[in-house]
Amino acid sequence: MVLATHVIFSAYGFWLPNDPRGSWSDFVAAWELLLAGGKTTKAATRRSVAHDEHDCEARLRAKEALKYPAVEFTGTQALSVIHGFSAAIQESDYRVFACSILPAHVHMVIGRHRLDAKRIVGHLKGRASQALEREGLHPLAAFRSADGSIPTPWGRKSWEVFLNERENVARAVEYVEQNPVKEGKKRQERSFVLPYRRN
């Protein structure tokens, strides 16, 4: 039985379907990206390929072909994202055991819930986007369309690892908590994060 899920979701432009390290995408939907970086590079593994050696120039060329600038949240914007996450968590009573918000992606460990992980991530992204707009901090506000809508600051998909043993949940919590530290940042504490007990 699944006890929790480790989810990773990214800001717009962080991990493209034709990233030279590989991706879990089946196709490159944007013509500009296809021209800039070729076809999708399907990863053959579920393990993280983030630190694999790759052609950095090819990755940057593809990012330059994006319709909008790649999003990297500032510290102030990350606080706004937290406000949105808090709203979603309160609305649906998600049990979050770990959360790290990095400039271009988010790691969370979320306890078993009646909604599947993809729906939960969609809810979190939606409320975070609303908070960014409401607080005047949306990173793509300059690209508002004629109907008033703003492009999403989030990538389309998410990555989920289902955890069915307490030890695996505890390991995932530790991994998420240490993620900012590995990038030279402080360990993050969130009011909506619940302590995870192995027993």
Sequence-ordered SSE layout with sheet pairings:
Elements: E1 4-11, H1 31-37, H2 56-64, H3 75-92, E2 96-101, E3 105-111, H4 117-134, E4 154-163, H5 166-182
Antiparallel strand pairs: 1-3, 1-4, 2-3
Helix pairs in contact: 1-2, 3-4
Structure notes:
Mean pLDDT is 84; it is low at 21-36. A hairpin with a 3-residue loop joins strand 2 (96-101) and strand 3. The protein has helices spanning 31-37, 56-64, 75-92, 117-134, 166-182, and strands at residues 4-11, 96-101, 105-111, 154-163. It has 199 residues and is of the alpha+beta class.
Quickly describe the structure.
The protein has 199 residues and is of the alpha+beta class. Helices cover 35% and strands 16% of the residues.
What are the defining features of this structure?
199 residues, alpha+beta, 5 helices, 4 strands, 35% helix, globular
The major β-sheet equals: 4 strands, antiparallel
Biggest sheet: strand arrangement: 2-3-1-4
Assign the structural class, choosing from mainly alpha, mainly beta, alpha/beta, alpha+beta, or little secondary structure.
alpha+beta
Mean pLDDT equals 84
Q: What is the first-to-last residue Cα distance?
A: 16 Å
Unreliable segments (pLDDT under 50, ≥5 consecutive)? 21-36
* Gross morphology: globular
**Individual helix count:** 5
Could you estimate the helical fraction of the residues in percent? 25-40%
Total count of strands: 4
Strand content: 15-25%
Q: Compute the gyration radius: what is it?
A: 17 Å
The run of helices and strands is EHHHEEHEH
